[in-house]
């Protein structure tokens, strides 16, 4: 069984391994970082630690959130640093059998295919399992 924290990005259900999630936060004040890549929304302060915020909509080539739509923060750790993945809404932690994960469909957009580990078929549609390391490999 694999435990995944689920969330949505532009109405697509996604998940990341729950053991890698450090925090889930509501909307936060984000400070812009000059000359950062477009998918880097900025940084935020989490209990005295600087956290780089990555806008998954931009990272995955999707349109920006509508005006007034606040992003949720899924804080993950990678290479000893904290990163916030800006998502539209956070779901729940689900336990899925590892055998139920199938490879990404060949018709999946290249940005999503690059960031995904595979998909789980569910009643609501496909749950795309994202690879945090690939998501954070910017540039």
TrEMBL record:
CheW-like domain mapped to chain residues: 1-139
UniProt-listed Pfam families: CheW
GO terms for cellular component: cytosol
UniProt-listed GO biological process terms: chemotaxis; signal transduction
Source superkingdom: Bacteria
SMART domains: CheW
InterPro entries in alphabetical order: CheW, CheW-like_dom_sf, CheW-lke_dom
Record protein name field: Chemotaxis protein CheW
Organism, as annotated: Roseomonas acroporae
